[in-house]
Specification:
The structure is a single chain. 12% of the residues lie in helices and 30% in strands. The protein has helices spanning 10-20, 68-80; strands at residues 2-6, 27-31, 39-40, 43-46, 59-63, 84-85, 88-89, 94-95, 100-101, 106-107, 112-113, 118-119, 124-125, 130-131, 136-137, 142-143, 148-149, 154-155, 160-161, 166-167, 172-173, 178-179, 184-185, 194-196, 201-202. The strands form four sheets. Strands 7-10-13-16-19-22-24-25 form an eight-stranded mixed sheet, covered by helices on one side. Strands 3-4-2-1-5-6 form a six-stranded mixed sheet, sandwiched between helices. A six-stranded parallel sheet has the order 8-11-14-17-20-23, with no helix packed on it. A hairpin with a 4-residue loop joins strand 24 (194-196) and strand 25. The radius of gyration is 17 Å and the shape is globular.
Length: 205
Amino acid sequence: MTLHIVGAGGFGRETLDAVRAMAVAPEVVFVDEHPAAAAVEGCPVLIPGQLAAPDGQRNEFVVAIADADARRRLAREFEDGGMRAATVIDPRAVVSPGARIGRGCVVLGQAFISTGTVIGAHVQVNYQASIGHDTVLDDFVTILPGANIAGNVTVGAGSTVGTNAAVLQGRRIGPSAMVGAAALVTRDVAPGQVVVGVPARPRES
């Protein structure tokens, strides 16, 4: 099986680290629309037009790009092209057997995902992030390093929770929202809203 990591930048290389930590690691090829080099960390970098025709489940991909809109577009293109979305979970992460993780997700080392958590498709959970019990992360959510999300939280599709931010229990974050780095979310966040600070408040324009 060949795993195509879409995006050869920083998060792509971090995803490669997670793959290489697995007991049995697949062959890896990077795919990048604007490659800066012909190879990264010993893996070839292709542009989408260089990909061979898919051969069923032997060709898998994961989109390793933080921008949710770009991730959504590329995931659709690769799935429409016949590839299967893989899920990459670093073996150094702690994931409860009672959690459900969707296709195309990346969970990096030392992340913690608690019981009852439901994670949608193409979600990214970065290093040392913590996801509490019964939390729901909708499709294309990005949880940046060190973020701490308490139990029974809902994070809407395409939203980002910033580095070292904290979200208190039971809060709801609407789709396409942004929680700034080190913010403390004590109230619900409206769709598309950007909140910053302690406690988190809408960012002034």
